[in-house]
Design goal:
Blueprint lengths: L1 H10 L15 H8 L1 H18 L1 H4 L30 H37 L1 H16 L2 H10 L6 H10 L3 H14 L3 H8 L4 H9 L4 H24 L10 H10 L9 H28 L12 H6 L6
Length: 320
Amino acid sequence: MSELSHAHAEAAPRPVSRGRRRPRVPEWLELLLRNRMSAFGIALLTFIVLVTALAPLLTSQDPSVPMSLPGQAPSLANPMGTTDQGYSVYTQVIYGGRISLVVALAATVIAMAISIVLGLLAAYKGGLIDDLINLAANVFIVIPTLPLLIVISSFLDHTGPGTMALIIGLTSWAIETRVLRGQALGLRQREFILAARVAGESTARVVFRELLPNMLSRIAAGFTFVFIAAVFYEAALEFLGFADVNKVSWGTTLYWATVNSTLLQGEWWHFVFPGLAISLTLLAMVFINYGIDELADPRLRMKEQRPGLLGRLIRPRSRA
């Protein structure tokens, strides 16, 4: 009896030991990180976001409280110098990115939400709805955005970050609406759209369940362009004084540098560092867009393209 049980135990299959599987990276993220330029843009934008998010850990100073002598050049004590009132430019730059980035992100979300709804609806419905949406988009395209924002801001009693995000978002949707409408027109007569219409699907379901998933790469590209514009418009409005200048942001730092005539006094650091923060943010988004172009057009992908540093770090190792 013992021999039979021993033989049965030997015949029983042994559990195969499996190592821990690394979490699978989404294909779209792997494509972005495989492209060296978009990988650099992602790394740069991540660094900027982390610096602003971890600002309380990177400095013990309050950006709205003067802590040093005024007009000091960059040094070990003040890496980016001080303003004419003794504020630390370094502290204002890393804290100011919070408002600037959040306002730009909120404005981009608002603008893209309007663009997606109106652009896809105009292409799918056609007729009078398409004509009305095209008319409204053409009006907003013809009017220069920055002067329009200045006029709107001048009539408002209070222009805080929330108000700025709203007015920028409500005036930055027209171009992307036209672009998405044009792409959706090419998809409207595809078989899966016609099949959904024959099946009696509602307009909302066809637009958001059939059209939208096939336009995500174009929407992502539009998101980067609108975000770039939103960062610029937010900084421009604050620089011109059409915002709450008592809030610390990149644009208000430039505003006070202009008011105090710091360039005439040779205090270049008051302008250079917040301007550099804005420029690096825009540069990061431009580089990210290179990878998004590859997502939208497979012909741009190189068959034997070497992955960038970030791509090699997260790419799963091939098993023998």
